[in-house]
From TrEMBL:
Compartments where found: Membrane
Pfam families hit by this protein: TB2_DP1_HVA22
Species for this entry: Setaria italica
Record protein name field: HVA22-like protein
Topology term for the membrane: Multi-pass membrane protein
InterPro entries with a match to the protein in the record: TB2_DP1_HVA22 (IPR004345)
The UniProt record lists the keyword Transmembrane: yes
Keywords, ordered alphabetically: Membrane, Transmembrane, Transmembrane helix
Keyword Membrane: yes
Main localization category: membrane
GO cellular component: membrane
Amino acid sequence: MPCHPPRRASSCTPSGLGEKSFVPIKFRCAVRNKQAPRNRKMGKTWALITHLHALAGPTLTLIYPLYASICAMESTSKLDDEQWLAYWIIYSFITLFEMAAENVLYWIPLWYEAKLLFVAWLVLPQFRGASFIYDRFVREQLRKHGVRLHDHHGHGHGAEHEPHPHILKAEHGHGVH
């Protein structure tokens, strides 16, 4: 069965718009017939990649960190607690940034993929990226601006004397009266 209605050699056109083709009909039909299974296979592969892409984001940014945070809370080590607390702080910053810059990020190609790579670096225990970012940037900014945070565990300066130590508050050390 031919791939298109039979035409005279002089009027055979690839697009049907009247331009002449110098490629014989038999060759064009053979190429189309060989590409059809490949195109179907590529379509299925693309669908699989799209589905994996849709699962990778939530798994990498939420499901694995949630599981690891629960494991960290149940362990006796404080090192993993710091890693996952730092992750959630940085992930919150990323989310707030995305909310504020949504209209701009929409136009940046591969933003989502770049974010996934960055989050993978933050999450994977081989890199401990969240702890690195927190120690190098967040903690440095807190110290630079003289911000002291009081927590509900009594670790902050003077937290044991506060009437409501469970309330998180920031004090600036810049000549407060």
